[in-house]
């Protein structure tokens, strides 16, 4: 995985700012906030992107960055995925899981040493997100990119609370090959010309999940490399949002509460009419 390290080191040279993804059609407004939880005795920062509006619960995704960390250009890439998912109705939480191990960027040695600590932190994040008032606890998924996808595999394989997993440019950590017994439904997205995490790495993971009778959906983007161009990234968000929300049924109580909110008269006592 030396190529992943090269990408991490080269990310700081990408000076161009990666803006938001331009999603087609109507999108939801998003509220952003900085939060944190504790894992392994350390404060772990979380950047939350939540569909605006009070009193409604959403399917959620914990977004996991790659080996380049969450800094500069790499952070912009992760943030645009998180915000776009939120604009499609998914409450998203960018978890700075490197905080738990004091990591800035990761190489092969760091990954071998800290992998299971990162998995533990992501599992702690699952519990923290499930307790959030804006989240449907039954629909908390993982959205991992590159190293984040590898970490997501470890967390999903060892935590039954994870409902679904989206893996972008991911593969299988060798230490997991003999220990995966169960796995939630997974969506695997990969560029055919990825020279950082080759498509063959995803093939290995997909074969293992098939043997474990997991539900796996795969989509390859012809000509795309490790970082998707705009059109492929938008398509990845659209597929991921549908996948993460699949099977979501509003409960009767939630439907009644939503109807009552919409029917309630507005408080105009503080409105100043010019």
The rounded Rg comes to: 19 Å
Unreliable residue runs: 5-17, 264-274
- What gross morphology would you assign? globular
How far is the N terminus from the C terminus? 64 Å
* Category by helix and strand content: alpha/beta
SSE string, helix = H, strand = E?
HEEEHEHEHEEHEHH
User: What's the arrangement of strands in the largest beta sheet?
Assistant: 1-2-4-3-5-6-7-8
The helicity comes to 25-40%
Largest beta sheet, briefly? 8 strands, mixed
Tell me the total number of β-strands: 8
How much is the average pLDDT? 87
Q: What share of the residues does DSSP label as strand, in percent? A: 15-25%
Number of continuous helical runs: 7
Task: Explain this structure.
The structure is a single chain. The chain has 274 residues and is of the alpha/beta class. Helix content is 37%, strand content 22%. It is built from 7 helices and 8 strands, in the order αβββαβαβαββαβαα. Strands 1-2-4-3-5-6-7-8 form an 8-stranded mixed β-sheet, with helices on both faces. The longest helix has 23 residues, at 108-130. The N and C termini lie far apart (64 Å).
List the helices and strands and how they pair.
Blueprint: H1 2-10, E1 30-39, E2 42-51, E3 58-64, H2 72-87, E4 91-95, H3 108-130, E5 135-145, H4 147-158, E6 165-168, E7 186-191, H5 199-211, E8 216-221, H6 230-245, H7 252-263
Parallel strand pairs: 3-4, 3-5, 5-6, 6-7, 7-8
Antiparallel strand pairs: 1-2, 2-4
Helix pairs in contact: 3-4
